[in-house]
Amino acid sequence: MRGLAVFSLTSLAAVAIGCGVAASSGVPLGVWVRNPAAWLAGALLAVLIPVMAGRRTALGFLIAAPLGLTASFLGAGQLGVHRWLDVGPLHMNAGQILLPPAIVALTLPTLGHVRAIVSAAILGLLIAQPDASQATAFGGALFGVIGTSQLSRARRVAAMAAVGLAMAAAWLRPDPLQPVPEVEEIMRLAWTLTPVAAVAAWTALLAATCSFALFSTAGARGGPRALGAYALLSALIPLVAPFPVPLVGMAMSPVLGLWLGVGMLAAQARFSANSPAASVG
Asked: Does residue 279 fall inside a structural domain?
């Protein structure tokens, strides 16, 4: 409960600061208003998932993630880059929405070899898109999953090496997209307005990503740690390359995705509490 409260407050603060910076920088209302709408929709989904989730919810997200990434190749893309799904007038990043709940699902040992197959498929699709940011963040989460698995030491080392090579391969793919000021460069816009806004934005963003450490791990089996690693890396990567800044930048997908991850954590905890021997699978 403490982790949920901290994430709710800090993520809302990050979204609010980002919207304030965007509005003050001349970004149209129709663009920045989508982030608070996504925050509200995501919070509602996070409440509904543990209430309505069945025993196969985790498996459903594990199937949805590679399918969603594959579907991104059906569109025209941008300069050869395929990361998005068009939902009516909305341009949604498939990985940023579907990876957080899938990461939590990957921490379930009951899924066995399905986890390895899905993880390899996701990494391969992220390399093909290409999306070095999501490949790195997802790979960081996988390090946590592998490190706490029941695999032998030799297999853990081999698996981590394979993930590391995949992450490196994603960075070697050319990415011709130019940064959008209110998305990838929102922190620069904040600093231009006032350093106070930039400091506040970074404080709220890092607090939100670190809040997963406060989630109860009872029944979650490493889910909070894996999701926290993904969120933190997603927040830091824009410091070294032009990728969307989650929560603060004008992008709905990471807002929805992190809330879906929170919903999956709550679903796991609920099923564990109702039946200690059971899990969402």
From this structure: no
Whether 210 and 11 have beta carbons less than 8 Å apart is answered as no
Determine contact, residues 236/205, Cβ cutoff 8 Å.
no
- pTM higher than 0.70 for the full model? yes
E strands in the chain: 84-87, 90-93
Tokens standing for residue 99? 């990876």
- CA atoms in the 13 A half-sphere facing the CB of 6: 16
What does the pLDDT look like over 33-49, one tens digit per residue? 999 999 999 999 999 99
* DSSP codes joined into one string, 17-36: HHHHHHHHTT--HHHHTHHH
Burial class (CB in 10 A: 0-12, 13-18, 19+), 173: middle
Assigned domain for 60 exists: yes
Three-class secondary structure assignment of 140-157: HHHHHHHHCCCCCHHHHH
Dihedral in degrees, nearest 10, Cα atoms 100, 102, 104, 108: -170
Task: Report d(CA 182, CA 85) in Å as an integer.
Answer: 20
Cite the DSSP H helix spans in 148-251. 153-172, 186-193, 195-210, 223-236
Q: How many domains does the chain have?
A: 1
Q: What is the pLDDT of residues 53-89, one digit of tens each?
A: 776 888 999 999 999 999 999 988 899 999 999 888 8
Structure tokens at 159: 């698996």
Whether 131 is in a domain gets the answer yes
The residues, ordered by sequence, that sit 6+ positions from 149 with a Cβ below 8 Å of its Cβ are 109, 156
